[in-house]
Amino acid sequence: xxxxxLVIRPPSEAESYIxxxxxxxxxxxxxxxxxxxxxxxxxxxxxxxxxxxxAASRIIPHARRVFLADGNALxxxxxxxxxxxxxxxxxFPGLERVGIYANGRDINRKSREELRGLAExxxxxxxxxLESGDDLVLRRVRKQDTSExxxxxxxxxxxxGLKASVxxxxxxxxxxxxxxxxxxxxxxxxxxxxxxxxxLTLMLVPGTPLYGEWEKGEFEMPDQKGLLEELREFxxxxxxxGCVFRTNHAxxxxxxxxxxxxxxxxxxQVIDRAFRRxxxxxxxxxxxx
Length: 289
Description:
Elements: E1 17-20, E2 22-23, E3 42-43, H1 46-59, E4 65-69, H2 78-91, E5 97-101, H3 104-109, H4 112-120, E6 123-131, H5 135-140, H6 147-159, E7 163-170, H7 178-192, E8 196-201, H8 209-215, H9 224-237, E9 244-246, E10 257-259, H10 260-276
Parallel strand pairs: 1-4, 4-5, 5-6, 6-7, 7-8, 8-9
Antiparallel strand pairs: 2-3, 9-10
């Protein structure tokens, strides 16, 4: 099993077999993201994918979950992705779910018949970065999709039998736009009603355009208190049914977990305690991507 470049996966795929089917990200222009800046996007040769699946079937024959990397592998042509899913089903008899990263455009470009076919072949969950429900923020950080396009994509994916896991990025609007970003993001995810929802916190990484804006004083990151206020506003505005919510990513100051329709008040109480007890927050040296 071979890997090229920096390979990332969602926290929930920690025990999955990671299979690279593309290299890099087809968009690769977001000003805050350092992940694939040195990688030119391309499809991985099918023969290499077949070889890696064959090797993995001998090493981990009882694998139950597979995650397809890199950045937005769902942009692959549908026939090619179907071929990969069939190979995985044959190689791993106990396979329960295949996950994949996607942009909203990747989903919206595929027909409902294509998406349903992928679900029938074992694709179980798509991970999407909404980042913000504020289109002003999305344009500024050069995201590819509008918030409306992301809402359409998640609704379409779920309609076709795929689970959806959505990410919002705390701090992305800076200090001045913080609460607007929280409210509009909550409104967007409430319309999506995804199966899973995660909040991560922006990390300013040297070499990214957004880091350069911060260095020049053109972007001001909210402080800890401001980020907690943003998180509180986001949670209090969300109206979701049965959605599993997590802030367990290493970038966050305050790990939370719950079902938002059931545990909203409890989560808000934890945030309120954190305002009074800063020792509850993750130390800076323990934060990371």
